Amino acid sequence: MPLLDHVVLQVDDLNAIGDWYNQVVGLAGGTRTFDTPTLIGYALPGEPAQLFFSLATDLGGRQTHLALRVEDETIVRRGHELAIALGSEILHEPRLWPEYAPDYYAVFIRDPAGNNLELKCQASTAQPTLPRG
């Protein structure tokens, strides 16, 4: 069973950010599956499609963090390039994060609504974790 069931991000303009997420979620293999006046839903690939996150208006709060697991480092870097092309703020460039795990490779992006989006994968070439102290 997956660790992440779903996440709902608050946004101000569903149409504008929905277009942005259509492209980014597409990199992770997800698809936009439903729309209402106050909610857009995205699902994981497979049969049956399973909702894994939504964008909604009028929920309160900001700075939600969403991590999408992608296939490999190439997809993480493509997400970084796409974010730059879309004019998004890059919070952290793609790199290994050995403080999380020796093979944790990710990029952190600010979406147009101010949320923190992470694209992560298991790196093919892990570096040893340095001892703390």
From TrEMBL:
Which organism is the protein's source?
A: Antrihabitans stalactiti
Q: Which SUPFAM superfamilies does this UniProt record tie to the protein?
A: Glyoxalase/Bleomycin resistance protein/Dihydroxybiphenyl dioxygenase (SSF54593)
This protein's source sits in the domain of life called Bacteria
Q: What is this protein called?
A: VOC family protein
Chain ranges of the VOC domain:
3-122
* A Pfam family reported for this protein in Swiss-Prot or TrEMBL: Glyoxalase
